[in-house]
Amino acid sequence: MSAPDCLDSAEFLDDYYDSSHHPTKRLKVNDGDSDFDSDEEGRNVGGSDAGDHDRDQDRDQDRDRDRPRSQYKTAPSPVVHVRALCDSVIEADLVKGVDRFGLVSYVMMLPNKRQALVEFQDLQSAQKCVAYSKRRIVTIAGHPAFFNFSTSQRITRPGGPEDPKHINNVLFLSIQNPLYPITTDVLYTVCNACGPVLRIVIFKKNGIQALVEFDSVQSAQKAKASLNGADIYSGCCTLKIEYAKPTRLNIFKNDSESWDYTNPDLTARGIVHPHHFV
After folding, report:
1. Residue 205 has pLDDT above 90, yes or no
2. CA-to-CA distance for 24 and 17, rounded, in angstroms?
3. H or E element: which one contains 117?
């Protein structure tokens, strides 16, 4: 059943309480019949049905309060608004939960609000997601979430949609909960499986971050899709990945915090200043 086929609460009640379904309206068969012989009887029977009616309305209103009002008013969009996410959800969990409905073009996490925006590659995929969530529970990282169409037709990418650098071959990695040492060898082993890695620089700026330069945009896209939200070690060293601004890294020495894999014989001639890259 597609989203337009779904009746809202008011339409459901109108249909349920028409003369062909509701018992109190069947009491009067035609215009020549009278309703009730006794006003008291009418009040008793009518009062019972009115109570049922009120309970049905209260139940439907409670259900509607649990769902965003925009579900019934917002026009279909390739962008879906996701609510009620648990605190530990990251992008990889979200993509895993919705990729059965279609290809995901972009995800914007809103962790402070426990919400996210998911942009599907086409409108049909977004419609499948929203329609399915009306009939069944969709879980993200083991917790139920709510899905509705966003008022936006496209998620604005970092740097703006017209900026050619908003997607490139260099990724910015933030390592969360780093209980084990993170070195260039560790990141190379993890990232090179997605495509050839050319250069890596690791730095500490409010935690542990790294810049990883791939041989192509395609390799970087594959790495972001495969590794964003993944743990380097079980239960820790979680990767959170975004596209970085530079298209090439300048490496001055090969060691545990920086490495140029196109120049393995590079000797230490200075230090890397990672703040120039972010």
Report:
1. no
2. 9
3. strand 115-120
Q: Looking at 67-183, list the stretches that DSSP marks H as alpha helix, in order from N- to C-terminal side.
A: 70-73, 91-98, 123-135
Of the CA atoms within 13 Å of residue 270, those in its CB half-sphere come to 6
SS3 266: coil
Residue 2: pLDDT band (50, 70, 90) is very low
Where does residue 51 rank: exposed (0-12), middle (13-18), buried (19+ CB within 10 A)? Answer: exposed
Q: Which amino acid is at 266?
A: L
Mapping DSSP to helix (H, G, I), strand (E, B) and coil, where does residue 94 land?
helix
Q: Could you report the per-residue pLDDT of 29-85, keeping only the tens digit for each?
A: 344 443 334 344 444 434 445 455 555 555 555 555 555 544 457 899 999 999 998
Q: Where on the phi/psi map is residue 112: left (φ > 0), alpha (ψ -120 to 50), or beta?
A: alpha
Angle, alpha carbons 93-94-96 (nearest 5°):
65
Token output for 89: 């959800």
Q: Which pTM does this prediction carry? A: 0.56
- How far is 244 from 224, CA to CA, in rounded Å? 11
**C-alpha span between 220 and 274 (Å, rounded):** 19
